[in-house]
Every structure is written in structure tokens, then in C-alpha cells.
Specification:
This protein is α/β, with parallel strands linked by helices. It contains 22 helices and 30 strands. The chain binds adenosine-5'-diphosphate and zinc ion (2 copies).
Length: 723
């Protein structure tokens, strides 16, 4: 017998199927991982097919050495998914397969954790000498049941234990410990579903993709839980994806509360061991629901009955580093393979998904009102230019300050949102205009007040505080504009007796930090929580009656066709945090461009109005979903080398203009907006083409680039981020 094998290595030359002989005495099946000789080395590989004949000359074939595990780590469905993803996203087979396994399994680093216990050997008469006091005590303790070996050794020392064991009085047992991640459960409060929710659940039955468009607070989570409950009742399994698990602790605790041990978590916040154990619980069928961020879509569950993607519009569903893929495509593949529904839920669906629903490709289900019957909070737009004209050049408008006073006086809570961490707190020289940049990455450094340093957010490199301009030696250097820290200091000045909490990348770098901040906020009144995108999602705080958006424009001015869409999504999400309970909520939105259409639609919670306007603009300007953008990114330490590669590919691709003419809307080669990251130079070819010929063009371009280059070329379709 022969096996077709994919070698677990990243090299492009190895990205194909190799044939090996299966030794007689080795029982192997498809999907198993094996050790094989390759050249002079021994490498790991995946069996993707077993067959009677070989295509290659048999005398030149080598034999498989041994298996790595006793089971097929890659199931049949995943092998087909591998083919699909490799083709769709132009990925190497091995790099796709790696996505399916916890990394610790591949690297063989994590061993299962074991705990050892001692217990009495039954039916043995114990005779101890009077002097063996410690041994007698141990026997007494063990008479009450088994005890941890480590604990006993700490108290009584190893020698006593050893003596007892040698006499045959006690024995050691080993138990495997499952490192199930800890979650605070809120207990299960079941609610009576409203008619909207019932209708939605009734409709979500078929082997289709559903777009569940429900305003914030419309009770989507409750729908997800009911759908999954029904799925389990049918004896099937489910996958539920959330954008970033540490940001959605509430969903997690709700699910654990209702489904208990049937839930397995897969996300980056877990330790390597925890991830591995959760993966195994899914693989063995012990756990039936996989919940997690993007990578949980690869959960090793068979017999799927439901796949749910919450907040489907989130950029985090598209992986930005290699291998690049869109989680929604993978989810569709798995849903079709298992003939089950796929639910994409959002209060602000991506323009792309909503259009697919309009075109009839997805089935649209709408939840227009909040589950508790509350109105959406009114949004007041404050023109910051006007504020400046009236002499207020501060961070907060007079309106926002007045509303904050109201919150404080009533012992309620507020959230203040800014668009990015430490945004634009760069160092600038007022005399010559010098801006401090990272020497490796060519981006502005961000000033961090806590440790008085400048940091590069792309590579993490740190620089000393500069008191003088390195260029003209002037002392007139200016640090920073507005960041979370500055807002916090300003608030402390305004409200010295009020608890001000801060949540951003800097305050949440340690494990459980999110949860701790949120827990503290939950019990403190009055309190103000200042934060970045992290506070925009899923939190359900009853006493938040005010949401302030300090810099609503920030996300508008990125050179990205999705900038307006992102701004709409953010405002809607953040606004949804206010007035979720009995008290009237309110949103104050500060902007320097109050007449931009995005603010008009967002302040009226008019998703459809916004969609219409946005989709028209995209159509006129020929941007996705009315065209396809392809970015080919070249990175290398050697700038000349990248430029040569770029030039070569570009010359080839330009020839396509003759073939495709008008179908190619745009084609150019350039430096990337960020010219260096981690010392690698970055150049790119940008293309935009009409949809009719998009697949053909994309495939041709890929073939050209693939044959002209060796490594470090990234293909991105409709990239999320153009840095
Ligand atoms: P979404 O995810 O759509 O923003 P949630 O699922 O978080 O909304 O629900 C918002 C709030 O409404 C939650 O506190 C939830 O417990 C509550 N809720 C959900 N369904 C109902 C219902 N049928 N009746 C009353 N309250 C509900
Ligand atoms: Zn200067
Ligand atoms: Zn850097």
C-alpha cells in the first residue's frame, strides 16, 4: 500500500503531494500524522490518501517510519476544506493543515498534564513501628481518601512516602488533568422569547446562510443559545464564533451557564495547554459546542448542525497574517459540507453581506427592536469647530461635560470612547516639524506616559524620551494629542471624587485584565470607563446612561474604502451601550465634520439608509462589492531585491491589460504606506478589476507572481487594512 503525504514544512518547493510506501506492520489511516525520511532528515507529514498503486517509480519510493499519534488528527471534511482554502486563497497545503491543529500538538511541546495521588492499598494489614510517626500520620490521612502526592511530600517529605510504598501499604495513581479554562458563570437565566425571536428561530432550519440583522439589544444571543440547544437535542454539534473572546466575556459566561461542560473554548487568550485540552475535548466528542474567535471555525467537530458568526462585520474574521483567509468563507464551506444552517449576526452587517442578502444569496432576518422594549438612546451631534469658535479648545465639549455632571450627580455610569489607543500621541518639533519615527518601520512613534518612552506599535521597539528635537535641537517639542491616558487625567481633574477606569491595550495586556476592569466598573457608582474599541462590544451595563464619543471622525480619514462603513459600525456599537435598562440613555458624539452623511444615518440608527447611500457611492466609484481589489505585497530585508521582484511581476501583469482592457480598473506598483516593518522593506502591486472577469484575472495574476517569486509574497483580496 502507498500513501500520499503532505510534508509539514513551509517551503514552496515542498508544496505538493509526495508518495511513500506503507510498511506491512503499520496500521495507518487517512488524516494521520507520520514521520517520514526526507532527503537526509526525518520530517513530519500528513497522510491525505491511501492507495494500492503508486504513480511514481516504486524503486525510488521510501517507507513511512512511524505514526505520530494513533488517531487521524485531520478528518475527511478538513482534507476537503484544505483543498478549498488552498485554491481559493492561494495558500500552501501544509500551511492550511496547520490551522487545523493546536500548535502544541505539531511542535510536540505540550505533554498532557498529570497529577499523581497516593492511596492505601486495600486489604493489606499495616504494621508500623512506633518510631514511624510520620508514616502513621500519612496512613491516617489516606484512610480518609486519596491525597495529592505533591501535597503529601511537602508536608511529610519523600522518604516517608517512599518507605510506605516499598512496604506495599500505599500506591500511586496517575490522573490526567484537563486544563479547562476558568470562566465566571452568571448562572442560567432563561427568558421568555418574544415573537421576533421565535420567528427567527423558526426560520433558521435549512442548509442556507442567514443574515440576522438585529439592532443592539434585540436579543440575538438568546436566539443563538436557543438554536444551539435545538441542535444538541438533535444529537448534533455547533460552532459559535465571536470576534474577540476577551471582549465578549458576557457571551462566554452565558453559554457556560446554559451548556456547562458541553462548551469548549478556543481562543488566543488560553495557555497552550488549555487550548490543546479543549481541542481534545472537541475531537473526542466530549464537548459539543466550540466557542471562540476566528480559529474556532476549524474546531475538530463532526456532524455539525449549526454554525453561528456573531458580529459578522468585524475585521478580525479576516486573518491578516499568512495564511490569509476569510472565516465566513470557511464557515460556508463547513455548513454546506454538513448541510446545516450558517447564521451571520450583526447590528451593522458588512455592506458586502447585506448586499448578498439583497441579491438573494443569503436569507435576511430582521430584528428591528430591542428585546426589552427600550428605545435606542438619542444621539446628540456636537460640532467641535463651533466649540472652538466659542473658545473651548479642550477635549470635551461643554455639552459632554454637562452630561457627565448629570451622571455623577445621579450616581450613574458613563463610558467615554476614543477611536484608537494612544492615538496620535506622537512627538513633534514645533520649530522644524520633525516627527519621531521608528528607525525600522517608518511609522510615527507613540508616546507612552507611564514609562516615559516612545514606542513603535508595529514592531514594539522602544525609544528614550526626547527633550530636544534630534534634527534642529530645539527644545520646543510637543508630545501627544489625545489618548485614553489624557482623557483619564482630564476627567480626574474635573471629577476628583469619581472612579475613572481605563481599558485599552496597555491596561489589558495581562491575563484576565479585561474581566477585572469590567468587574470593577460593574460595582462602582458613579464611575466613568474610558476606552478604545474594546469597550464598544457586547457589554451590558444597566447603569450606563451616557456614552461619549470623543473623536468620531478619527476612523473617517483612513485611506481605506471601508472607512465610512467602519465609522458607522463603531458609532452604532458604542451607542448601543447606553440606556440598556430602565434609565433613559444618551449619546454625545463629538466631531469636526458634523455634516458628513455617516453621522446623520448613525444618529438616527438608520442602517438601511446608510447602506443605500454607501452602496451607491461604491457602485459609482467602482469599489467592492462592485469590484475586487487585489493587493500583492512583497517584503524583504534587501530593498533592491524586493524592487526587482516587484518590477518583474509588474511587467508581467501589465500585459494583462491587453487581454482584459476595461475589466482592469486600476493597476499600479508602489511602496506600501508603511515602508518597513521589522526591518523588512514593503512594496506592493495594487489592482482593482471588474467582477465579471475577477476570478480569471486573479488566477492569472497569481500564476504569474507565483512562478516569478520564491517567498514572502502575500495576496490579499479586498484587504481590510492597507498599511
Ligand atoms: P444583542 O446581542 O442583540 O445586542 P442581547 O442578546 O445582548 O442583544 O440582549 C440584550 C438584553 O435583552 C439582554 O440583557 C438579554 O438578557 C435581554 N433579552 C433577550 N431576549 C429577551 C426577551 N425575550 N425578553 C426580555 N429580555 C430579553
Ligand atoms: Zn526640530
Ligand atoms: Zn518599528
Amino acid at each position: 500500500m502507498f500513501a500520499e503525504i503532505i510534508i509539514d514544512q513551509d517551503a514552496k518547493a515542498l508544496d505538493r503531494v509526495f508518495e511513500y510506501i506503507i510498511p506491512q506492520d503499520l496500521a495507518l489511516s487517512v488524516g494521520m500524522r507520520v514521520y517520514i525520511p526526507f532527503g537526509k532528515r526525518i520530517v513530519q507529514g500528513y497522510i491525505i490518501k491511501i492507495k494500492d498503486d503508486c504513480d511514481y517509480e516504486i524503486s525510488k519510493l521510501k517507507s513511512i517510519i512511524s505514526k505520530i499519534e494513533d488517531f487521524s488528527a485531520i478528518k475527511t471534511e478538513m482534507l476537503q476544506l484544505m483543498e478549498f482554502m488552498a485554491q481559493k486563497n492561494h495558500l500552501k497545503l501544509a500551511s492550511v493543515l496547520r490551522l487545523f491543529l493546536p500548535s502544541e500538538m505539531r511542535e510536540g511541546k505540550v505533554k498532557e498534564l498529570f497529577k499523581t495521588y497516593y492511596s492505601l492499598v486495600e486489604g493489606v494489614q499495616i504494621n508500623l513501628s512506633k518510631s514511624a510517626k510520620k508514616q502513621a500520620e500519612i496512613v491516617d490521612i489516606l484512610a480518609g481518601g486519596k491525597r495529592s502526592a505533591v501535597e503529601l511530600a511537602e508536608i511529610y517529605g519523600y522518604s516517608s512516602l517512599k518507605a510506605l510504598r516499598e512496604k506495599g501499604y500505599i500506591k500511586k495513581e496517575v490522573e490526567e488533568i484537563k486544563r479547562t479554562p476558568f470562566i465566571i458563570c452568571q448562572g442560567d437565566k432563561k427568558v421568555e422569547l418574544n415573537q421576533c425571536q421565535k420567528n427567527a428561530i423558526e426560520r433558521i432550519k435549512e442548509d442556507k446562510t442567514y443574515l440576522l440583522h438585529g439592532v443592539t439589544g434585540s436579543g440575538k444571543t438568546e436566539i443563538y443559545m436557543n438554536l444551539i440547544e435545538n441542535t444538541l437535542e438533535k444529537g448534533k454539534n455547533a460552532i459559535m464564533l465571536v470576534p474577540e473572546i476577551s471582549l465578549t466575556p458576557q457571551i462566554m459566561s452565558n453559554f457556560k451557564g446554559r451548556f456547562g461542560e458541553a462548551v469548549a473554548l478556543l481562543h488566543s487568550g488560553l495557555s497552550a495547554g488549555e487550548r490543546f485540552d479543549e481541542w481534545k475535548r472537541l475531537f473526542s466528542g466530549e464537548a459539543k459546542i466550540a466557542i471562540g474567535a476566528r480559529s474556532a471555525i476549524f474546531a475538530p467537530l463532526e456532524n455539525l448542525g449549526m454554525i453561528i458568526i456573531d458580529e459578522e462585520h468585524e475585521a478580525s474574521y479576516i486573518s491578516e497574517s499568512n495564511p490569509r483567509y476569510d472565516t465566513r468563507d470557511v464557515a460556508q464551506f463547513r455548513a454546506r459540507y454538513n448541510s446545516c444552517p450558517l447564521v451571520l449576526g450583526s447590528a451593522t452587517p458588512s455592506i458586502e453581506s447585506y448586499k448578498r442578502a439583497e441579491d438573494g444569496e443569503f436569507e435576511l432576518i430582521e430584528l428591528p427592536v430591542r428585546a426589552n422594549g427600550r428605545e435606542m438612546p438619542p444621539v446628540q451631534i456636537v460640532d467641535m469647530m463651533e466649540e472652538l469658535r466659542r473658545g473651548n479648545g479642550g477635549i470635551f465639549s461643554n455639552q459632554l461635560i454637562a452630561d457627565l455632571c448629570n451622571v455623577v450627580n445621579n450616581k450613574k455610569q458613563a463610558m467615554i470612547f476614543i477611536n484608537r489607543r494612544g492615538f496620535s500621541s506622537f512627538m513633534k518639533c514645533k520649530e522644524c516639524g520633525y516627527i519621531a519615527k521608528c528607525s525600522d518601520c517608518d511609522v510615527s512613534l507613540v508616546y507612552h506616559k507611564e514609562d516615559n518612552r516612545l514606542k513603535c506599535h508595529y514592531c514594539g521597539k522602544q525609544y528614550k524620551y526626547l527633550a530636544r528635537c534630534p534634527s534642529c535641537h530645539s527644545e520646543h517639542v510637543k508630545y501627544g494629542a489625545v489618548g485614553t491616558q489624557q482623557i483619564v487625567s482630564k476627567l480626574k481633574e474635573l471629577f476628583p471624587d469619581v472612579k475613572i477606569l481605563r481599558m485599552d491595550n496597555d491596561t489589558t495586556s495581562t491575563k484576565n485584565a479585561h474581566q477585572n476592569i469590567l468587574n470593577e466598573f460593574k460595582v462602582t457608582k458613579p464611575a466613568i470607563l474610558v476606552g478604545t474599541q474594546m469597550i464598544a462590544k457586547g457589554h451590558d451595563f444597566e447603569d450606563v446612561i451616557l456614552v461619549g464619543i470623543v473623536d468620531a471622525d478619527q476612523s473617517l480619514y483612513q485611506s481605506d474604502y471601508r472607512a465610512t462603513e467602519r465609522t458607522f459600525q463603531l458609532i452604532t456599537q458604542v451607542a448601543g451601550r447606553a440606556g440598556r435598562s430602565v434609565d433613559e440613555g444618551k449619546v454625545v458624539l463629538q466631531t469636526y465634520s458634523p455634516r458628513h452623511y455617516v453621522f446623520k444615518f448613525a444618529s438616527n440608527y438608520d442602517y438601511k439608509g446608510f447602506y443605500r447611500k454607501e452602496v451607491n457611492i461604491r457602485q459609482t466609484a467602482q469599489f467592492p462589492p462592485y469590484s475586487r481589489i487585489l493587493r500583492i505585497l512583497f517584503c524583504d530585508f534587501d530593498e533592491n531585491h524586493v524592487r526587482e521582484q516587484l518590477k518583474m511581476c509588474y511587467t508581467d501583469i501589465e500585459k494583462l491589460r491587453k487581454v482584459y482592457g476595461d475589466d482592469i480598473i486600476y493597476l499600479d506598483a508602489m511602496k506600501s504606506p508603511i515602508k518597513r516593518i521589522q526591518d523588512k522593506f514593503r512594496y506592493q502591486i495594487m489592482m482593482r478589476f471588474k467582477l465579471a472577469k475577477a476570478d480569471n484575472i486573479e488566477n492569472e495574476v497569481f500564476r504569474m507572481v507565483d512562478s516569478a517569486t520564491k517567498n514572502s509574497v502575500f495576496f490579499e483580496v479586498n484587504p481590510q487594512n492597507l498599511s
